[in-house]
Design brief:
The chain is an alpha/beta fold. Helix content is about 40%, strand content about 25%. It is globular. The relative contact order is 0.17.
């Protein structure tokens, strides 16, 4: 498996909700340039371009598959395959947007000051990070990984997303970098059609990847079946066939 734009966009409306809320908190100033780091298939970039129609917009993602989808969706904008951690642009930006991407990037203590440094005067860094590692869906991923014949192969699978911190940490770190900071946390409740299987499909596009990628097809199928059965005990299917997935997300807007 690898990053798949098609898998990710199965739940595009729900995945795009948080970035709408994030962009609503970006100051409405004269924005000449903006970049969407971790742009995925372009859903967040499209909202960024709509919010700032006169700005030069750039989208970045480490996945060629995602960039291909974004270019097809928004052929009039510029997209590049790039790794956020090593990204070294010569220019500075009025807005840097990162929607559900920094959880995949290590060492936020180094990364965040570097992103602030890429802001133009009066620029804004706007970030949303899933804050759900303690939710049952994630806990059951880890338990499923530790309880099957794949346990040895997956013992470090969950560490790819261990770089996240709490609200206070982000506030302190960004203030120390010289920014004015607004930080908040929201729990979304996403209605997904299809019972626990829909939760599996949701996470196949994101958090399940480190657990499924190392497995062969047979073990991948067995892992998913065991994980879905565990989900069914925690996330009941409602009478109309949907399941409600609580999803905490952390936001911060830093201006300098």
């Amino acid at each position: 498996m690898s990053w798949s734009a098609a898998q990710y966009t199965k739940f595009e409306d729900e995945r795009t909700r948080p970035v709408r809320d994030l962009l609503a908190q970006v100051p409405n100033v004269d924005v000449g340039s903006a970049v969407d780091i971790g742009c995925g298939p372009g859903n967040s970039t499209e909202l960024l371009a709509t919010r700032f129609p006169n700005a030069k917009i750039l989208g970045l993602d480490s996945s060629a598959n995602m960039i291909e989808a974004a270019r097809k969706r928004l052929p009039h904008l510029e997209f590049q395959v790039a790794d956020i951690a090593s990204w070294r642009p010569e220019e500075k930006f009025d807005v840097i947007l990162g929607n559900a991407v920094l959880q995949w990037v290590p060492d936020h203590a180094t990364l965040l000051p570097a992103l602030v440094d890429k802001l133009a005067p009066d620029g804004t860094l706007a970030i949303q990070v899933p804050d759900n590692l303690d939710e049952p869906a994630h806990r059951l991923m880890r338990e499923t990984a530790a309880s099957g014949p794949w346990a040895a192969k997956l013992q470090n699978a969950g560490r790819a997303m261990d770089s996240r911190h709490n609200c206070e940490w982000y506030f302190r770190t960004l203030r120390a970098a010289g920014a004015t900071v607004d930080v908040w946390r929201t729990i979304y409740h996403h209605p997904l059609a299809g019972g626990p299987g829909a939760i599996v499909e949701w996470f196949k596009g994101t958090a399940l990847r480190p657990f499924l990628d190392p497995l062969d097809e047979q073990n991948r199928t067995a892992f998913v079946a065991r994980y879905e059965a565990a989900l069914a005990g925690v996330y009941p299917t409602l009478p109309d066939g949907t399941v409600l997935l609580p999803f905490p997300r952390l936001f911060f807007v830093a201006s300098c």
